[in-house]
Amino acid sequence: MHSDIKIMKKKYAVIIRVCLIAILTIAMILLPICMFSMGDSYAENPTNPYRELKVPVSIEKFAGQYFITDSYHGQVICSNSPSAPLNKWKVMAAGLSIPHGIAYDGKNYVILDTENNQVIVSRKLGDTFQKVQYLENIGIRPHDIYYDAAEKAFYVWSSMTGQMYILKASGADGKLAVSEIRALPELMNRYVRSFYVLGEYILFPSGVDTGYLMLVEKKNFKVAWRIPVTSDIAGMADIAIIGAYFYLTVSTDSSGDQKQAKIIRTTDLTSLARGKYEDVSSWFPDLGVPYYFTNIEGQYYMTASGKASLYRFKGETNKLNNIEVIY
After folding, report:
1. Which long-range contacts (CB under 8 A, 24 or more apart) does 2-9 make?
2. What pLDDT shows up at residue 51?
3. Which of 104, 109, 115, 291 could anchor a disulfide with 97, C-beta 3.0 to 4.6 Å?
4. Alpha carbon distance 211, 87 (integer Å)
């Protein structure tokens, strides 16, 4: 009797050990997935529920897909085609507060969750986008983002504090962290919406309450040049160099009046102080308030709020061609 009990105990002990080994093996396989997942996961990214864009800010293309920050719908949507019906696009991130941009380093999709003063990092898991990280307290209203491949760094602009947050990957898990903050103290509490990288310099458009563009050294933010502008174009949104011209989107004048919204161009930025520029707004049908430019594989896009919300066109040396409204 006692020998039978001992035999049974040994059998059960073996079974228990086998089960524990199996459980631990499964846990080790699943652990990286659990660590990767920080919630907000989808079996499949849902389809965009909207048939129109609501104040889109930017459009980008990464890894064969187009991404639009649909700002006032609080989401980022993606598609293989920039002109697919909007209700065919997928939602790669939702529940955001007025997002303003997205950038990509080949692994991390970094999204500006603007009114929450944070960035959200997503990665692609199979065919699904997964949030993996939040970086909070990224200034006030992070408004523009740029990935510098040479530096392996994301540049994130805090539009209300005059600070540029430099994000770099660190540690074995490759998570992003703030490596440096470069600042322009004179822009503290001034609303400057974007920036344009020019080699070793960065060009900032005029804010409503600044009244001048700024050219600064990229590595140390030393001011190289201040370029005054007239009050009617003070509230700039973005700058692009297309052909021989600087093109600038103007959201408001110095008083914040959106009726002064326009698109202007010049070959000489210093001429803006004298009110010398060409207004090319009439080239864009149904133009409301223009916002950001993007160059994607030789074609240009511009977002806007109003009846038309996304334009596409080609840039030549002295003119823009084939301007069309996509949405």
Report:
1. none
2. 95
3. 115
4. 40
Closest of 146, 195, 137, 143 to residue 166, by C-alpha = 146
Domain 44-183 has CATH 2.40.30.170: no
Judge whether residue 132 has pLDDT over 70: yes
Residue 7 CB contacts under 8 Å (≥ 6 apart), including other chains: none
Can you name the CATH fold of 193-327? Neuraminidase (2.120.10)
Q: What is the mean pLDDT of the chain?
A: 89
pTM of the model: 0.86
3-state helix, strand and coil shares in percent for the chain, rounded to the nearest 5: 20, 45, 35
The first and second tokens of residue 48, run together, are 């965009």
Contact 110, 145 (CB under 8 A): yes
Q: What is the pLDDT of residue 43?
A: 53
Angstrom CA distances, 44 to 91, 121, 224, stand at 10, 18, 49
Token digits for 108?
């991390």
Res. 295: pLDDT tops 60? yes
18 sits in which H/E element: helix 2-36
Beta-strand pair 142-148/289-296: unpaired
* pLDDT, average across residues 130-155: 97
Q: How many angstroms separate the CA atoms of 78 and 45, rounded?
A: 10
Q: What residue spans define the domains of the chain?
A: 44-183, 193-327
Contact between 232 and 239 under an 8 Å Cβ cutoff? The reply is no
Phi-psi domain of 65 (left: phi exceeds 0; alpha: psi -120 through 50; beta: other): beta
